[in-house]
Design goal:
By secondary structure, the chain is α+β, with helices and mostly antiparallel strands. It is built from 13 helices and 23 strands. α7 runs antiparallel to α8 and α12 runs antiparallel to α13. Bound molecules: adenosine monophosphate (AMP) and glycine (GLY).
Length: about 425
Amino acid sequence: MKILVVGGGGREHAIVWKLAQSPRVKKLYCAPGNGGISKIAECIPVKATDIDGITAFALNNGIDMVMVAPDDPLAAGMVDALEAKGVRAFGPRKNAAFLESSKAFSKGIMKKYSIPTAKYEVFEDSGRAIEYLRYQDFPIVVKADGLALGKGVIIAQGFDQAQEAVNSIMSDKVFGKAGDKLVIEEFLHGPEVSILAFTDGKTVVPMVSSQDHKRAYDDDKGPNTGGMGTFSPSRIYTPEMAEYCMGNIYKPTIDAMNKENRKFKGVLYFGLIITPEGPKVLEYNARFGDPETQVVLPRLKNDLVDIFDAVIDEKLASLNIEWDNNAAVCVIMASGGYPEKYATGFEITGIEASEKECGVTEFHAGTKYDGGKLLTSGGRVLGVTAVAPTLEDARTKAYKGVGKISFKDMHCRKDIGVKRN
Ligand code: AMP
Ligand code: GLY
């Protein structure tokens, strides 16, 4: 088979890496890909959001399956466009991806179908939102309705900060049209767990659990980032919790989407917060998470192509999906200054030694080759992933791997995988 993966970060590298292990795959393409991906797939210079470009490439090159990984093209209807031309595509259609691309919609689904989540109100008018805020307890959470590069959520400690958030989202439109509506919701306390699940709209199969470290510095200090590291499994997600979530969250969400005539097929990501009252949904993502995928896929025993096929053909119930009992830890090596200002273009050395001597796998997030040299090209540069019998072993192994790699101004957290809650 010829498969095209759309996207170019660490998540896409992990997906391409897993697909490359399938005996069913003859040729892999990635658009646009990155330095690491170019070693195992042919990278093509088409933007991940270019629906016409991706469709034309798939048609002209006899692509058997297109896997759309990022949120933007899913929200814009890339899967619908590919299907309309007869191309097999993995990922939710636009009307189902709406579960991620509109927070007002996803909150409405949860309310209508009694899926546990934070209490909330939706506003289309900044004056009303600010009036409402006057009578609330703080902290409170202000969220832009649409996709905002992961920056559309503001946890406001007091009225002034909340008002400022409303004004910047709704009046100054810092996130553009994503801020036409906003959600104001109750602040929930508790640790967060990420559950990615395969679903064909009939059956939902949760993958192994993982946890993300979102803040830039150790001990969860500093600004929020796209993720500084992940580990799997979570220490707090028990089998009882998994059973509760299947009955009260996962299955009801799939059923709700069917009732709304928005059948969800692809990967559905449940961002859970484990409150004293039990797990609640913080957010849905209509795709694999990044960097969760970098610790989840290395534990998958099945051929990923078989799973993608079963999802597309709505035969997921016929597959037995199996996981490795080993734990996995992924440490992100970032450019100094990320997530704010940072410089790129620095040479990266030590990757081969790290892989050979430490047995780790590097998933590239922001790298590119230039004249035979591997250079940094983004905020998050590499995800160094280790698999070992325990989380502690995987952690030690991952940091050994990190120690072999260098580039100028490298920043990574030293406590990935330590989190106990
Ligand atoms: P979201 O994009 O909705 O997942 O929000 C991003 C992050 O903001 C989450 O991963 C949480 O860390 C935090 N967050 C969002 N909603 C809430 C909430 N209701 N209570 C506490 N933290 C929240
Ligand atoms: N790790 C969170 C996300 O992929 O959105």
